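#struct-help
A.M.: can someone run this one for me? Single chain, 334 residues.
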Amino acid sequence: MNTFFCADACRKADEDIIGSGTNYSVYILIECPYPWEYNAFESRFLPENLEVLMASVNKSKLSVRFLLITQNQNYRQNNRKILIYEKEQSSFINGYKKYEFDVDHPEKIAPIIQKYLAGDNLDTKTQNPQTRDILVCTHGSHDKCCAKYGNPFYTEAKKTISQLGLKNTRIWKASHFGGHRFAPTMIDFPDGRYYGLLNRESFSSILLRAGCIQSLKRVYRGWGILPTSIQVLERELMLRHGWEWFEHEINLLHLDINSDKTVIKTELAVLQPNNSTYICQAKLVKDESKTVQLKGSCGATKESEFTKYYINNLKFKIERKIAEAMPITRKKAS
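D.P.: on it. Structure tokens below:
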């Protein structure tokens, strides 16, 4: 009997979990009751037209992540909710724009998504921009750590939200979005930040954006609007600014990764709440002392290397005005 749990190995290794918040331009969240298969989109309550659409989207290599969500385990009715989170389309951004729809039959899910992906005008009457959506991975059929840690955390987190009286915060069970070994793991929308190794105390701080900001150092996986390789830099800025950082907007100006990914040069423009801006320049260097060899999931047959970086040569340049469109330049150094 296999008694290996990847989340236990992560904790034992004291892994620094920053740099694991996967980067997508669009998240499409589809309400679907349990049970979920290992491959969530082979689950029994999903219509065939949705499978066909997803196959087409995956083939096109679009930066789109499909996830299943639910708030209970029972098949009750055909009514389903669709949430689409789209990365903001401007120079300075701090999260995702939401579209929210309700359908009365699963067969109607795919046409709405198809219409969105085609760029057609959408009926946005059901949009609810004020609501915060928190996704907790409970996909135990994909990785047993998400059942062992994700399910109890979801129950406790739901209770915490209720006790804190947070009316515009919804919590969802979600299918696999990566990072089994960080269970319980979650994504917080609309900002699109990833967290892991959570408990009640750290979750309450994230909900309220209060308490000691340094406590996030252990549970923060990264901001999904940025490439994983430079998320450690954003965490450093967050720890320096405190909770006010969540009101800042950023623009990735430059990203230069050398061939063996041991050195990264990057430049971020930061727009502060008072409308002043600054440029942050940094070199990130592979941190041999924190880089780990671990099995990335409970079912992995061998260990993988998970590269960590430290920040070297951090510089700040104050700017009063930045041109509206500053193009990002990416290159791979030889």
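A.M.: thanks! Residues 322-334 have pLDDT under 50 and may be disordered.
D.P.: also worth noting: The radius of gyration is 20 Å.
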